[in-house]
Amino acid sequence: MAASSVSPMKPELPPKPTQELSKITGDQLPDRYIHQFPETAADHSAIKYMDNPIIDLNLLSAVSTHQPEELQKLRSSLSSWGCFQLRNHGLTSSLLHQIRQVEKEFFGLPLEVKQKHSRTLHWVEGYGNDTVSEDQKYCWNDRLVLKVYPVDQRNFKFWPEDLPKFRETLDEYTKEVRRVLEMILKAISKSLNLDENSFVRECEGDEGIYMLARFNLYPPCSTPDHVVGLKPHSDASAVTILLQDNEVEGLQVQKDNQWFKVPIVPDTLFINVGDQLEIMSNGILKSAVHKVVIDKERERTSVAIACFPYIEKEIGPISELIDKERPQLYKKVKNYISLYLQYSPTAERAITAMKL
Could you tell me which Gene3D superfamilies the record lists for this protein (predicted)? Predict the structure, then answer.
């Protein structure tokens, strides 16, 4: 399908957030949230846990005698799964608790207060919901999306002013995630035998990295097999850094056309490759296809920070990763996010339009 043949997404805000619907609907879900799945697709109890390794950020440092082994683990994980769990990342347990706390405080605000920060129909930023498909079905989630970097581009009209610690906590969390991002990008470059700054240069350039924070709330649902927390998708980002719920599972990743549960590993960050890093790596790294399923009795929360190259920066496969054995697999592109949003309501992935 050519990119020009896909109509831009025009999301509509649902009349009630799922947080409110979960309190009153019981088994009578509004039709706009009901999805029909094959019986086998809904049997989450039969799904196995993923078995990719946990990466230790300390071991990726140049002073570690175990760096070569850890770099090999990193490359293997990202070329097969497209994701990994990161430990010893340097974010304190206190900061992880604080960011989770301000998230819960936001979603605990009265509806009329949260709606002051509602998203527009033309962009993802703000409080709202996600559509799943071209027929405007909705995901069973509420979310708050905020631009956090560059700092001078923050749209504070979307930031809740009723929570005094929200801004300072998110600011500190963003700085720490940006630190981890740079270390991860350097390690990924080394794992591919590139100069350690190769992916940093590609992602940041002269304009700096672009980062969106997304606070996710997945309320419980009495018929979880009929709803979608997040539809199967890969991210438009270069890298996404996720803080999972510390008690309730729900994230699943796809490998070899099979779904696997992502386990909860305390105090780790879940890191996944996005489409733009797959393109830059000429397909050596895989953009992780993932989804979220809903719990019948417990709500689930998470905090994701998606990291993008500057929107007008042209990206493409790094020249050192193109040779006779591995010819160029992807076109060069500017503003990949725009292409991604065009494909988002469809069942097709935007990255397919980038293949040569």
Answer: B-lactam Antibiotic, Isopenicillin N Synthase, Chain
Q: Which of 155, 37, 171, 36 is nearest to 102 (CA)?
A: 171
Q: Which tokens go with 216? A: 């996710």
Burial string for 100-129 (b: 16+ CB within 10 Å, else e) reads bebbebbbebeeeebeebebeeeebbbbbb
Q: The whole model's pTM is what? A: 0.92
Coil, strand, or helix at residue 298? Answer: coil
Q: What is the pLDDT of residues 90-100, one digit of tens each?
A: 999 999 999 99
Q: In CATH, what number does 76-354 get?
A: 2.60.120.330
Cα–Cα nearest to 3, from 281, 351, 259: 351
What pLDDT does residue 10 have? 44
Please report where in the chains the tokens 């500057």 appear, as a residue.
Answer: 310
Torsion over CA of 41, 42, 46 and 52, rounded to 10 degrees? 60
Two tokens at 143? 């979310």
Write out pLDDT tens, residues 278-287.
999 999 999 9
Q: State how far the alpha carbon of 282 is from the alpha carbons of 27, 249, 279, in Å.
A: 47, 32, 5
CA–CA separation, 88 and 268 (whole Å): 8
Q: Which residues of 294-314 are buried (b: 16+ CB within 10 A; e: fewer)?
A: bbeeebbbbbbbbbbbbeebe
Beta-bridged to residue 346, according to DSSP, are none
How many Å apart are CA 38 and CA 35, to the nearest integer? 10
